[in-house]
Amino acid sequence: MAKKNPKILSIVFAGGEGTRLMPLTRDRAKPAVPFGGVYRLIDFPLSNLVNSGYSQVIVLTQYKSHSLDRHISQLWRFSTLLGNYVSPVPAQQRLGKHWYLGSADAVYQTINIIEDVQPDIVVIVGADHVYRMDFEQMVNQHIESGAEFTVAGIRQPIEQSSQFGVIEVDPEHPNMIKSFQEKPKETTGLPDNPNEILASMGNYVANTDALFNALSIDSKAENTKHDMGGDIAPFFAGRNEAGVYDFSRNEIPGATPTDHAYWRDVGTIRQFYDAHMDLISCTPEFNLYNMEWPIYTNSGNLPPAKFVHAAGDRIGHATDSIVSPGVIVSGGEIHHSVISPNVRVHSWSQVNDSILFDNVEINRRARVNRAILDKNVVLTENSTVGLDVEHDLARGFTVTSDGITVVPKGTVVDD
């Protein structure tokens, strides 16, 4: 049983390899992938935790973690006077000569760190999603319910149940989990809406002692993937000790009806692209401009964006777009795109429906359509990306089945 005013330690899973986001994860960990112009994916869970009042955080890293570690060390620095910190922790190999076998094993291998802190409750979150969430509200429900382990769930249409790990709730106690179903073809809807299910968000709250016991048992089990959602949550559900927190109840200061309970998995190129497009509508699906619950980052000591030339067919402008600091649009045209810092868009060039990472240069008369250009990509004069699928494939670029072209970091595109 958790106590009132508990001591909280937060753990962020940031070790994902992110193979479905290749080539964006070719040289960086998935949580280090840039997002929304000036952010990285890791900034979203860390901002949520800090805004929730939780500022003792360890970040579990594993694959290609250099840029992620550097970002955390440069940006996420707190005053040690109050005992606050965000600390990257590499894979420890404390239980043998192997890396993390799963998310549960990752936590189990850091038990020594948890024991040093001696928290009453551990908040465990992923770093692969874009959302705002007040975790204090989830922790309060966890305490009030008497659960040992609570899973955050997001409502999804019941016809999509085969795409998620589905949480079946107890009809008589809707805050408690009856069972887990992994991507079922058929399932039962929620008591208050038979057309919806609760899908696991990969965020958990656990009483420390109970969590240690479950992880110890899981470490010795044979038929396990050492996964928090697939093994630890069902363990608690089988003992009637697992609660569920309905994300739709989470209230964020400054939220609008449009972006209330927004949550997006950005695990694939299409999901990553769509989440960016959510940012740039007039009434955005996800509102980056809610300063009552800010997403923290550091875009550097950069000058404002600049738009120059306004004569004839040579007009530097951007419409329905996000344009970051340090960008110069010099006689080029940007439409419905997200432009990261220090990008250059030169005369008579066009960028449409695209995402440009830092330091991309689009030279004269070049054209980009429905594409993602990683850092330091250069398009020479008259070059194109995203206009001819066969041409893009022949040059070794990734093209998704629905026509999104991805150009790897540092590529010089010369037609």
Automatic annotation (TrEMBL):
Pathway per the UniProt entry: Glycan biosynthesis; glycogen biosynthesis
Record bears the keyword Transferase: yes
Keywords: ATP-binding, Carbohydrate metabolism, Glycogen biosynthesis, Glycogen metabolism, Nucleotide-binding, Nucleotidyltransferase, Transferase
Catalytic reaction(s) noted: alpha-D-glucose 1-phosphate + ATP + H(+) = ADP-alpha-D-glucose + diphosphate
Residue ranges constituting the Glucose-1-phosphate adenylyltransferase/Bifunctional protein GlmU-like C-terminal hexapeptide domain according to the UniProt record: 303-407
Biological process according to GO: glycogen biosynthetic process
Annotated site residue numbers, Could play a key role in the communication between the regulatory and the substrate sites: 62, 99
Gene3D superfamilies: Hexapeptide repeat proteins, Spore Coat Polysaccharide Biosynthesis Protein SpsA, Chain A
Subunit structure and binding partners: Homotetramer.
NCBIfam families per the UniProt record, alphabetical: glgC (TIGR02091), PRK00725.1 (NF001947), PRK00844.1 (NF002023)
Protein name according to UniProt: Glucose-1-phosphate adenylyltransferase
Organism expressing this protein natively: Bifidobacterium animalis subsp. animalis MCC 0483
